[in-house]
Amino acid sequence: MRKSKNKKHHYILILFFIVIAVFSIYEEFGKDKKPKVPPPPPSKPKVAIIMDDLGPNKETAIEIMNLNNRITLSILPQQTYSSWIAGEGRRRGHDIIAHIPMEALSAQKPGEGGLFTWMTDGEIVETFDKDIKSVPHALGISNHMGSAFTRDERAMRVVLAELKKRKLFFLDSLTTPDSTGYELAKAGGTRALRRDLFLDDKDAPAEIEAQWKKLLQLADKNGRAILLAHPRRNTIEFLRKTLKDNKEIEVVPVRELIAESG
Q: Of 88, 92, 143, 179, which has the maximum CB count within 10 A?
């Protein structure tokens, strides 16, 4: 009887080791059969395209919206279609910012709702309030012209304080290298960005294409870029063609770059 029990125990041990061996072989064999997950594609540089000077013309604004719903709409205040474009643009998924007219060093008139360095703090706030109310859904502002106004620290501090209070950001169009806007905003705790390139300072197809190539180089180097453009025929046609087959960059809403800027 004892010999029979030992024999039975011996068989159980053999069976146990056979099961372990089979399981190990299966595991090793299964490694080769597991599907290989391809590495994720390399991330493309992020570019925010800001389309300035919208507001006076509804048809042109619709053309811009139809190009790509990640283009940010930068709308002049107190224009005929400012409010309509802001509402329709938001409905279609665009980021909205107010393109606030500011005093230039030249004799150019900034337009309706313009801010001037000769204004008192109260006058700046009052005019700014009207501007913002005429562009609903705005996440922030940029400056239209403003080579004189953005150099003036007192005037810019008034605007930036209003932005901070309203939880809006400032995008410095950098119409002058002497702008104080971006630095004052960062120092005062107002979220801010600044543009990298203008696409169409020169309204000619060859010049626009050259600027786009500069953009690609800059975006590739830094991983991101901010491009300002204007709703002109050459610009619209260039973007329609280029964005259709674009594989070099990822067009992103401006709020995405604001969020990453901290």
A: 143
